[in-house]
Design goal:
By secondary structure, the chain is mainly α. It has a single domain (about 1-290), classed as Farnesyl Diphosphate Synthase (Orthogonal Bundle), CATH 1.10.600. The chain contains 14 helices and two strands. Strands 1-2 form a two-stranded antiparallel ribbon. Strand 1 (about 125-130) and strand 2 form a beta hairpin. The protein is globular, with a radius of gyration of 19 Å.
């Protein structure tokens, strides 16, 4: 029993801390978008590029954090990254190489989206913003942090496939999918801000939970998930006529997301957030696959 627990822990650590799981989450959001927009190409250059771009960016940011954060202040994730720094470097290098080769498949409109989103993502950990007399990282400015993450994740996982496959980005279907994605990503970002209150307070970062408190932030999460559900009702019972399977998938995603995020406030397991909360991004794609 003890051996199986050790093996499971190692598998979870490698999956979560190597950034492979979060990269799969990003790719799953692209696949979900393609299904909802009727593209359904499966594993394609866009999802491959997004997967490896996530691997590259998260790995690069992690290695930069190792240089900035002192050893006594590092969490379990950073300690793992220090121990397996060479493996993390190889995965990051692999991600960068695959992105460099994948971008040649993009058309011009997709390029116009990728360039600014890529710049924001790369500069996210660098002190380039002068704020109150000091240069700060984008992630260290409370409200900007959650806005940047929401915009980049939603744009890359919705607008990028829409541009690449020449969907009408001004059409109602693309707008509703984009709006649903913003509501979902924003709620997930808020849940992580709730987790990081102690660290953000120590760093002087004024996030939404720090300014408004835990209970009001949880209410905002509920509103975001309610908005996600209402937009799904609007889309799947109006624009696509009535699609019970897609509506049911969105309903389950909203309800389960609520339960997972609310439970996260009382769960202290090291794997809960990166596995179950981030895993919400894979959930709707899997439910849509069951509907096919």
């Amino acid at each position: 029993m003890q051996l199986s627990k050790v093996i499971l822990t190692k598998i979870l650590e490698w999956s979560l801390y190597s950034n492979l799981f979060i990269a799969l989450c990003a790719a799953a959001l692209v696949w979900e978008t393609e299904i909802l927009l009727g593209i359904s190409t499966g594993i394609d250059p866009i999802s491959i590029m997004v997967f490896f771009a996530t691997l590259f960016l998260y790995g690069g940011h992690r290695m930069l954090s190792l240089r900035i954060i002192l050893s006594e202040s590092r969490n379990r994730q950073l300690n793992w990254s220090k121990k397996y720094l060479f493996a993390l470097f190889i995965l990051t290098l692999l991600g960068g190489g695959m992105v460099a080769s994948s971008v040649f498949y993009l058309n011009f409109p997709a390029w116009l989206l990728v360039i600014p989103m890529g710049c924001i993502s790369v500069l996210y950990e660098l002190p380039i913003i002068r704020f109150k007399g000091k240069y700060r990282r984008l992630r260290n400015i409370g409200f900007l942090k959650i806005i940047w993450i929401t915009i980049v994740w939603s744009s890359i996982t919705v607008l990028l496939p829409a541009f690449q496959y020449q969907e009408n980005v001004n059409g109602l279907e693309v707008i509703t999918v984009f709006s649903m994605r913003i509501a979902l990503i924003f709620s997930l970002c808020l849940s992580f801000d709730l987790r990081d209150v102690r660290f953000d307070e120590a760093a002087g970062i004024r996030t939404i939970p720090i300014i408004f408190g835990r209970s009001k932030t949880i209410r905002v999460v509920i509103w975001c998930l309610a908005l996600y559900f209402l937009i799904a009702v609007l889309q799947f019972s109006t624009f696509q006529h009535f699609d019970f399977g897609k509506l049911a998938a969105a309903t389950v995603t909203a309800l389960l997301s609520y339960r997972l995020i609310i439970a996260a406030s009382v769960v202290d397991e090291w794997y809960y957030y990166p596995l179950f909360v981030d895993g919400i991004m894979i959930l709707n794609f899997l439910l849509l696959q069951l509907d096919k």
